[in-house]
Amino acid sequence: MSSAEGTADGGGVASAAAPADVAVLPTRFHGLVVAGIMLATILPLLDTTIANVAIPHMQSALSATPESVMWVLTSYIIAHAVAMPLTGWLSDRIGSRQLFLYSTAGFIFTSMLCGIAQNIEQMVIYRTLQGIAGAFIMPLSQSLLLDVSRPSRHPQMMTIWGFGAVLGPIMGPLAGGWITENWDWRWAFLVNVPLGLISLLVLYFTLPGHPKKRRPFDLTGFVLVGLCMASFQLMLDRGQQVDWFDALESWIYLFIALSTLWMAIVHLATSSNPLFDRALFHDVNFLIAFIFMMVVGMVIYATAALLAPMLQVLFHFTAYDTGVVIAPRGIGAMIAMQFANRMISRGVDPRLPITLGFGFAIWSLYAMSGWTLEVSLPQFLWTGVVQGLGIGFITMPIYIVAFATLAPRLRTDAAGLLNLSRLMGSSVMISVVTTLLARSVQTSHSDMGGHINASASAIIDTATAGQFREFSESALRMVDAEINRQAAMIGYVNDFWLIMWLTVAAAPLILLVRRAGSPPPAAAKPLATAPEPS
Q1: Could you tell me if 363 and 385 are in contact, meaning their C-beta atoms sit under 8 angstroms apart?
Q2: 237-247 pLDDT, tens digit each
Q3: Cβ neighbours of 477 (radius 10 Å)
Q4: What is the dihedral of CA 464, 467, 472, 474, to 10 degrees?
Q5: From CA 303, how far away is CA 499, in angstroms rounded?
Q6: pTM over 0.85
């Protein structure tokens, strides 16, 4: 039967069965499988940002220094980035079903360990293990959703997956703020346990999987890519603390990253069994999607990383209120994904919704670059909705076109690389905007302080200065505090400008995207029907 053939034969038969609208991994429990996969997917996405809100409480409870507590975030991201390239090989080696179940179970267990950690050393170790376990969930969930669904339902599946991919990091601060204010910071991790167990139970009984394949492990490629990712991430995370390239530490990280990147490129291009199938890099849509995912990571994560401290420090919002203000981005994204899904399902060129997405994203960032300390709540909300529309119109169509011209056997590797691209884009941009913010604040404070000095000295240099010395010092502190607020606002505006212009620079790549139904280029045609490795 065709369904059985599609399941057993991998790439070649699945490609032949696709016109007959048959899933690669047919299942009688499609709805339950999708629900279980998405519940498991949202957990690591939430954990990426939910821990940010709990950091101050965690620092106090674990008696950690500000520098050491930041390793709670850094260790998770580095482990995530290093482990994610293994997804494709592990999926073939032990089976996609087994790997997804093991990853979900591992994430549940390590989340519990994080919730009961007694000191900062334990927390960093457990977060590293949690990052490794969660690294495989994202790419596997994406490829499995496509494999268990008929090709005609792929746009719908990418819409559902996109909801989780966008809502997770946006709702993380909201959930984290509510949990830390009403319960305890440990529940930011322990909440994963009951939700994860529900997902694990559903998937254990309903999730189908690909058969195991013998695939040689590219140890050299993995070591080179892992060293490159780890050193690059360390440079980004440690750069601001050690004053970037004024410190030897940053140069060492940069040297290791560039050296291993060059060696990895040469190795992956010449190896007989590379870590990633080279057929991926023959597909134009995949390459464009790889770049677009970096842009999406920059817009989603970097903007959220800026908004949270800005709202709390400059506008005195609570952690929960900050989450409420950021949440409309999720509403806009959900609306846009639904519209983009309908447009593509009716044969609209995917470049149209992607273009709309870039238009909305640029519009929102332009509006944000004009904010002042007098900005009102409605302005926060409507720019959030508009930015969410942009994210939704970009994310869902680009995932569809990225997978539309790839053979099913390449989906897991492709999903891993796309998620790695999004992760690295967000890491790079967060480091850049954080550094730019700090330096803009210093420069703006110095500039404004020079203009304030004369007026401020007039307050002190009066005949009654000695009598009211205490009052004068208080007045100076108030003036300095206001200068700090204005300088910080200028710094945030400069960051929004930078993100906007980077988004503008990426927009012309839309012209290179091919329609989902167009044939692949000649060089890639044989790869779609190539036999699976024995």
Answers
A1: no
A2: 777 777 777 78
A3: 10
A4: -160
A5: 8
A6: no
